[in-house]
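Worked Example 4.2. Consider the chain below.
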Amino acid sequence: MEPLKNDFFYSRLPVNEISLSDLLTEDHLFYKIPASWHVVITDVKNSTGAVHNGLHETINLIATASIVAVLNIIYKANLTVPFFFGGDGATVIIPPGYLEMVMKALQKHKENTRTNFNLDLRVGEVPVTEIYDMGHDLRVSKLRTSEFFSIPVLLGDGLMYAEKKIKGPDYMLAPMLFAEDPLDLSGMQCRWDRIKPPRNIYEVVSLLVIAPSTVNQSLSFKKVIDSIDAIYGTAQSRTPVTVENLRLKPRWPNWDLKCEQGWEI
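Applying the procedure from the previous section yields the following structure tokens:
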């Protein structure tokens, strides 16, 4: 498929080389997601119970596979899109021309997840134009976090609306679309051993911060980031994931077997 001009929206966004705290104060560096795009969300149902049953890594890898399946479609067109890992699911915002291919791949991933792990993966999409029509906002910027890597930073309550709709009891699932090609999860690996928290303090803090109103949303997030920096140091100093800390672990036989037999990597 030949990409359209609008498909390059995210690929051509400027990459900001400032701190996240500073970026949140620069409203002009955030750009409105095109109304023609779509928010695609996956979510493992009853993931809390599955984690309690020792399936934490399985849940994480199912969510990761959701992202990989989408990106392997998008990258073939030399495009990039914003995506977000949620632990038990994922969110990807994509151009309209790739929606059918993406939904076919994710529905195949859904079936493989049920077959291999007896877990139900929720898959849904919401048009960005609907998000805007309902009075919600969705703007994105790019932040460079290392020499080779940048991440999307979103403002607005559009994703909250989309997630609430897809996870709601009244959400109507689209008809099943069956992909003719095998599910492409190439490039997905989990070969790194567990990494200790930084500075040997054995403390890991995970915060989910929600601003219920878009009024002063960026300032609220900035206060949280500034507090984290003051307590734990800069992002560069507190991150446990460094080249020095990465260690290969033995292959995970069960996962590799399921990938080779059922996930069709």
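The domain at 7-169+178-184+251-263 is CATH 3.30.70 (Alpha-Beta Plaits). The chain has nine helices and eight strands. Compare this with Example 4.1 before moving on.
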